[in-house]
């Protein structure tokens, strides 16, 4: 327990990027070779200790193992972290190559964060939704890595521990938050039909022997029973002093440090977001006034209240949207245009050999998000990158209309810059060019989301959307979402913001629909810090660019900045910063 503060003070003194003194190049090489060897061993050991994680990244040799969260298992994990920290500390990060130096800090941060999670955060005590076998089973059942029989045999092994898994949950949980309890009930109810129906359907069509099939079915029955009794226990257990879902300042600030790995503290980012919100409102009011004559629709007077004026103009511009049947086509048609724009404006090179495949979102994702990019894991060679587009087929007219207005012609283009080009998809193509297993598995969410958010703005700055006031106004609305995600997360978890005030912030000040705001409230009650990654990463990247511009003056090249920035893989921006400023 005492080790953690020491680790953090080391993190503050970090420094990557200076080339090791070249007096003895041979020993530098062997040091790096030894470090890389240790990384390889660490990763293999990590998979042995985290079978579920391994499976989700395409490593399937531990598919038949389910981690059960008894106290002994936690002790084992603590020992795992301490042992690997000891190995790590035999290296001096300053003497490693910049790539390895960054990996050093990523591993250290991961180990420290894992220890902190077990010793301080203790989500296993207050978050009943952290016990959910569903995703792991569904991933293997629906996988393409092995024959159906092979996958079912792995699942048969994995099912053995399901009753213990939920038994451990019942032993661990103490006064859970009501929100996480409700989520646990909802999600685990979905698991019953997985054991009682989906898996048995697959079993029938498989070539397992009759004896195997019989054993399998019996085990599935036991699993469904275990899930049912967990749900019943959650429903009936007296929880008169539930824990607040709000994390509170102390835990929140730490979680922010571990997850964002930012040069800013949570408080600093929150202050910046507040300031940014005011700036955006001022810019938007100017644009709304300018656009009013075009969108007044015969109204004699513009709304006096500036926020109301902005909202009115946004609502009227939003009527310009594609039809529900052409939504996916509209996205598909835009990708080549984005790539053309980037080429013509010399913004960065794009590898044409790794095309993005636009598809209707697969069934297991349904209802999650309007659009997302899914990429192959580090162990899935030759896997494709997909742009998943949600289908509106099952929606009534009203719901589809509201969604189409939200994703109107302007926002749809910005969404594509975020998800595809130059956002997530392009970043991924670059990250894959310098394969680095540590950065692939411990990639930094603030860098990844920050880059996509930065890409939106960079495109507009370079004239994407013809600098039309409509495009800028809609961009600001979209950008306000990232800004207000940060304000919301900090305000709720640290400052105790109420639901009512949160909805007011999102609807009045960020111009969101009530349904969207309600969804965001639910998300902030169930997650912590994650909503900050967009604005945190964006702020760091934008400031780094400004700093380099100041330094390099007329020699600054935007293309060179982008290509160099992306060449380091999904590393935290503060390390990339070190490497770019002190080459
Ligand atoms: Zn319409
Ligand atoms: Zn994103």
Write the layout of secondary structure elements.
Elements: H1 3-12, H2 25-49, H3 51-56, H4 71-88, H5 98-121, H6 123-126, H7 134-141, H8 148-159, H9 162-172, H10 178-204, H11 210-236, H12 249-260, H13 266-295, H14 306-317, H15 327-344, E1 356-360, E2 371-374, E3 385-389, H16 397-406, H17 409-419, H18 424-433, H19 437-441, H20 445-461, H21 469-493, H22 499-509, H23 514-526, H24 533-552, H25 558-566, H26 573-581
Parallel strand pairs: 1-3
Antiparallel strand pairs: 2-3
Bound molecules: zinc ion (2 copies).
Structural features, described:
The chain is mainly α and 583 residues long. It has two domains: 129-236; 259-581, no CATH class. Helices cover 66% and strands 2% of the residues. It contains 26 helices and three strands. It has a three-stranded mixed beta sheet, with helices on one face. α9 (162-172) runs parallel beside α11 (210-236). The chain starts with a helix and ends with a helix. Residues 1-13 have low confidence and may be disordered. It binds zinc ion (2 copies). One zinc ion (ZN) is lined by residues 418, 424, 449, 452.
């Amino acid at each position: 327990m005492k080790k953690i503060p020491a680790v953090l003070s080391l993190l503050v003194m970090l420094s990557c990027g200076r080339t090791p003194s070249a007096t003895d190049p041979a020993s530098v090489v062997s040091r790096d070779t030894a470090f890389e060897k240790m990384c390889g061993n660490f990763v293999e050991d990590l998979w042995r200790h985290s079978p579920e994680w391994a499976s989700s990244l395409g490593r399937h040799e531990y598919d038949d193992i389910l981690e059960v969260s008894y106290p002994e298992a936690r002790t084992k994990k603590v020992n795992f972290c301490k042992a690997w920290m000891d190995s790590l500390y035999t290296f001096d990060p300053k003497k490693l190559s910049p790539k390895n130096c960054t990996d050093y800090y990523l591993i250290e941060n991961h180990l420290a964060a894992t220890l902190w999670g077990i010793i301080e955060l203790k989500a296993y005590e207050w978050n009943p939704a952290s016990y959910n076998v569903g995703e792991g089973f569904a991933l293997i059942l629906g996988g393409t890595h092995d024959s159906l029989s092979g996958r079912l045999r792995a699942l048969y092994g994995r099912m053995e521990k399901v009753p213990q898994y939920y038994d451990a949950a019942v032993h661990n949980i103490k006064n859970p938050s009501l929100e996480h309890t409700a989520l646990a009930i909802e999600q685990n109810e979905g698991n019953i039909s997985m054991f009682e129906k989906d898996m048995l359907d697959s079993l029938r069509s498989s070539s397992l022997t009759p004896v195997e099939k019989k054993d399998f079915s019996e085990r599935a029955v036991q699993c469904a029973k275990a899930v049912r009794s967990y749900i019943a226990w959650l429903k009936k257990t007296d929880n008169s002093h539930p824990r607040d879902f709000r994390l509170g300042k102390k835990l929140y600030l730490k979680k922010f440090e571990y997850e964002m790995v930012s040069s800013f503290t949570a408080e600093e980012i929150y202050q910046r977001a507040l300031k940014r919100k005011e700036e955006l409102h001022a810019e938007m009011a100017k644009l709304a006034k300018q656009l009013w004559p075009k969108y007044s629709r015969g109204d004699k007077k513009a709304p006096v209240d500036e926020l109301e004026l902005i909202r009115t103009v946004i609502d009227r511009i939003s009527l310009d949207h594609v039809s529900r049947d052409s939504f996916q086509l509209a996205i598909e048609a835009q990708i080549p245009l984005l790539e053309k724009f980037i080429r013509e404006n010399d913004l960065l090179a794009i590898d044409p050999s790794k095309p993005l495949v636009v598809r209707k979102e697969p069934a297991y994702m349904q209802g999650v998000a309007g659009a997302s990019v899914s990429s192959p894991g580090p162990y899935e060679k030759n896997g494709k990158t997909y742009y998943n587009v949600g289908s509106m087929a099952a929606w009534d007219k009203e719901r589809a209309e509201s969604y189409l207005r939200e994703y109107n012609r302007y926002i749809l283009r910005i969404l594509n810059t975020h998800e595809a080009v130059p956002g997530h998809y392009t970043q991924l193509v670059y990250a894959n060019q310098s394969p680095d297993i540590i950065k692939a598995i411990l990639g930094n969410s603030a860098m990844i989301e920050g880059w996509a958010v930065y890409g939106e703005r960079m495109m507009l700055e370079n004239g994407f959307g013809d600098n039309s006031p409509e495009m800028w106004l809609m961009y600001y609305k979209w950008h306000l979402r990232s800004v207000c995600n940060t304000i919301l997360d900090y305000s709720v978890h640290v400052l105790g913001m109420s639901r009512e005030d949160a909805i007011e912030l999102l609807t009045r000040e960020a111009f969101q629909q009530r349904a969207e705001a309600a969804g965001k409230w639910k998300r902030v009650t169930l997650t912590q810090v994650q909503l900050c990654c967009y604005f945190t990463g964006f702020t760091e990247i934008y400031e780094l660019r400004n700093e380099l511009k100041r330094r390099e003056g007329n020699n600054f090249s935007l293309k060179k900045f982008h290509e160099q920035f992306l060449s380091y893989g999904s590393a935290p921006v503060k390390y990339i910063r070190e490497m770019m400023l002190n080459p």
